[in-house]
Amino acid sequence: MTVPVFxxxxxxNGPLHLGHALSALINADMAARSGGxxxxxxxxxxxxxxxxxxxxxxxxxxxxxxxxxxxxxRRQSEHADDYAAALDRLAALGLVYRSFLSxxxxxxxxxAEEARNGGPWPRDPDGAPLYPAVDRDRPDEEAAALAGxxxxxxxxxxxxxxxxxxGPLSWQEFGxxxxxxxETMTADPAAWGDVVLAGKFAPAAYxxxxxxxxxxxxxxxxxxxxxxxxxxxxxRLLQTLLGLPAPRYHHHRxxxxxxxxxxxxxxxxxxxxxxxxxxxxxADVRHIVGLPDRxxxx
Length: 298
Ligand code: GLU
What we know:
By secondary structure, this protein is an alpha/beta fold. 37% of the residues lie in helices and 14% in strands. The chain has one domain (5-100, 135-297): Rossmann fold (3-Layer(aba) Sandwich), CATH 3.40.50.
């Protein structure tokens, strides 16, 4: 039997909070139960948001939590070549275009569409408006000339074309279970529109980096929060286009604030380091996030 490979993949944009602790601990518990390996991947591909001091505090928090992982950790910022190769492959399929619209221009294009259609513009599963794609059909030479002249742009996936190319998609959802039959979930990547694949400050956007890294690291089991449940559709699409294997997915519950909203670093939600300083133990953290005592998980 192959050894399961798990990964915890934090973005070093802020300190870990209880939601991350739950995710890291579920990964570690599942690996302990199955004799699997645990990898940590620092998702610092967006240079404008990642901070080395957060990487240090994240790794300290993981050590304190007793999450053991293999070293060295993979840092996305060190693997731009891997993402460029994947982008080339998608481009060779005719699925990538340069989009030059600024945020203001995107908002104006959407407002114009809404006025024309008399109804709201469609939104993605996270609630963000779909990209209006007014520049999808710009001739390649013209787009290359604009890029050559230094006009900032992102690379986007031509979603309709990609979906037509691969046909129906699904993923296997295993929830908390390690060896159950799993449930086949229908993947609807089109709901996300023309997603960004790479941008001005990042050699790859999240969706592209995550599928490339999971495959290169041999990840068999993706354990992460339900906030990324619908994003899995985009991941299955990119895996299929790039000829990468599909891992097993385990989306876990989220820890919410007192007002019912998902914890967020930017709103300063219960940081682990602060809890630790206030004298909390790992057993306390497990209790707060609703996990059984460590001894009963092995
Ligand atoms: N880097 C992502 C985050 O911190 C997690 C990505 C994943 O687990 O697929 O939310």
